């Protein structure tokens, strides 16, 4: 244990925290839109958001690898405009993780928001509050259990990623070698004690997360 | 003064409703929208609030255009107080914070005044889940008044409460209406309530105004100079009792028994709509 490289664990934590933060910024407006929109595009967006639930991570990773590669138009454009190469980089991992964990943030929050009585938002509007202010001050506080579940599950799901990370990030120590990749790497190198250590830490973490979500859910049910 | 002519077609559970209503409500008046369910009462209230968009029409409030030529003033800028049928209290905020939510900065004194006026001072720190129906209703009313609205809109605010509470809250509504110099529009189909609070009734029938006037003008069908009262009811049962017949009638939610001769009773059957006339009133 003394020789265990902690860099993959720290990298995993940074990736999951960044992803969750970005999902809060992008996912919550999207959830609000899905919950209230009557647009014809809604079923399409709903489907796209849910896609990562059924899509093999390697497929999403493969397309992202192609899209972000400087050999292809979007990647070349990014390099020209911002001078960045997202393939095999931490930023590339973040983009992939955000897309991959999107349903874990958006779906519970959208479901909870659409379950609120419409009169709650309407009451806030009559009191002069904008749609954004109503979302932040009335709707989101009312769906706090779903919000907490979304945050915890997004974080945990990012920690558990493997195929997607391997596709677009590869296995670069300190840059893209997250904990799940480190397990794979140690097994390949026949370094079983290190693989055991990483695997046990991930197991304990997953158990704690699911337990936390269940406890939160039970508390929310008791209050309601 | 509120003047409007509003049109809207909606498809609801009761089929299509074509709302087409024009009216003028004097400043400081208390108007009740009444009519059968599906007649368009709530839709009209929501059009006035700006919570729903009219297909066409116009709306002017105290000289300001709220709707004209397709341009609609957003609900946030209309300065209305609205009380919803389900109260719509914010569950995560205390009673005081619910009321303060709509109040402008520096209106702390008003929030305290409303807490006192509505008898909520002792409940200020409680959350809505801990309140009874009548208490929730008072919070909803106080909250609607906290932004000093010119127009107060109420959607069947008392329908879920029992009789005694209703009377008490009707008095409170009337007091607030006067104290805050409001123009009030309320949806109701409780006749007792309408007579207790309204100056004016707009009775809607299939999306149009069927009758308009004071509650007495709209609802009292007996001649004005008559000392007799007419009660409309439904026959529930006719049973022989010795030489007479005992007829049970449902009038305004109350059961009334009337003794009739066999000859008179023969003309009645269960389910029939009838009119009862009474000539004497005694203090209860």
UniProtKB/TrEMBL annotation, chain A:
InterPro entries reported in the protein's UniProt record: MetI-like, MetI-like_sf, ModB_ABC
Keywords: Cell inner membrane, Cell membrane, Membrane, Molybdenum, Transmembrane, Transmembrane helix, Transport
GO (cellular component) term, any one: plasma membrane
Superkingdom of the organism of origin: Bacteria
One Gene Ontology term of the molecular function aspect: molybdate ion transmembrane transporter activity
Domain ABC transmembrane type-1 residue range list: 9-213
Residues spanning the membrane: 12-35, 47-66, 86-106, 195-216
Entry keyword Membrane: yes
Membrane topology designation: Multi-pass membrane protein
Cell compartments where the protein resides: Cell inner membrane; Cell membrane
Family: Belongs to the binding-protein-dependent transport system permease family. CysTW subfamily.
Function: Part of the binding-protein-dependent transport system for molybdenum; probably responsible for the translocation of the substrate across the membrane.
Name of this chain's protein: Molybdenum transport system permease
Biological source species: Vogesella indigofera
Gene name per UniProt: modB
């Amino acid at each position: 244990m003394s020789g265990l490289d902690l860099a993959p664990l720290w990298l995993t934590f940074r990736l999951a925290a960044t992803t969750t933060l970005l999902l809060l910024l992008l996912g919550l407006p999207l959830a609000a839109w899905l919950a209230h929109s009557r647009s014809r595009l809604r079923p399409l967006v709903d489907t796209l958001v849910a896609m990562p639930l059924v899509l093999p991570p390697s497929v999403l990773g493969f397309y992202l690898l192609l899209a972000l590669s400087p050999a292809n138009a979007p990647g070349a454009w990014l390099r020209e405009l911002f001078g960045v190469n997202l393939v095999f980089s931490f930023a590339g991992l973040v983009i992939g993780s955000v897309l991959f964990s999107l349903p874990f943030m958006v779906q519970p929050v959208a479901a909870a928001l659409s379950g609120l009585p419409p009169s709650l938002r309407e009451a806030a509007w009559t009191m002069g509050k904008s749609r954004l202010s109503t979302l932040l001050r009335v709707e989101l506080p009312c769906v706090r259990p779903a919000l907490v579940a979304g945050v915890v599950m997004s974080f945990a799901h990012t920690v558990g990623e493997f195929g997607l990370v391997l596709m677009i990030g590869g296995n670069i120590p300190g840059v893209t070698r997250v904990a799940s990749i480190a397990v794979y790497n140690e097994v390949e190198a026949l370094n079983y004690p290190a693989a055991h250590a990483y695997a046990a830490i991930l197991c304990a973490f997953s158990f704690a997360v699911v337990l936390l979500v269940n406890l939160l859910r039970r508390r929310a049910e008791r209050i309601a | 003064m509120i003047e409007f002519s509003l049109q809207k077609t909606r498809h609801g559970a009761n089929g299509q409703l074509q709302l087409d209503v024009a009216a003028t409500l004097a400043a400081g008046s208390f108007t009740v929208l009444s009519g059968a369910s599906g007649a368009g009462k709530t839709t009209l209230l929501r059009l006035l609030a700006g919570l729903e968009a009219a297909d066409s029409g116009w709306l002017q409030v105290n000289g300001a255009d709220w709707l004209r030529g397709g341009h609609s003033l957003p609900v946030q800028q209309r300065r209305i107080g609205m009380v919803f049928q389900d109260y719509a209290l914010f569950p995560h905020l205390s009673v005081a914070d619910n009321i303060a939510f709509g109040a402008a900065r520096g209106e702390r004194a008003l929030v305290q005044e409303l807490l006192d006026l509505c008898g909520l001072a002792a409940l200020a720190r409680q959350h809505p889940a801990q309140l009874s129906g009548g208490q929730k209703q008072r919070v909803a009313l106080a909250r609607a008044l906290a932004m000093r609205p010119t127009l107060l809109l109420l959607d069947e605010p008392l329908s879920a409460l029992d009789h005694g509470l209703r009377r008490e809250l009707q008095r409170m509504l009337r007091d607030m209406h006067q104290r805050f110099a409001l123009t009030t529009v309320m949806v109701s189909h409780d006749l007792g309530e309408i007579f207790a609070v309204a100056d004016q009734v707009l009775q809607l029938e299939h999306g149009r105004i069927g009758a308009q006037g004071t509650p007495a003008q709209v609802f009292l069908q007996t001649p004005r100079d008559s000392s007799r009262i007419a009660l409309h009811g439904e026959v529930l049962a006719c049973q022989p009792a010795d030489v007479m017949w005992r007829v049970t009638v449902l009038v305004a939610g109350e059961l009334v028994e009337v003794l009739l001769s066999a000859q008179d009773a023969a003309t009645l059957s269960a389910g029939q709509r009838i009119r009862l006339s009474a000539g004497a009133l005694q203090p209860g």
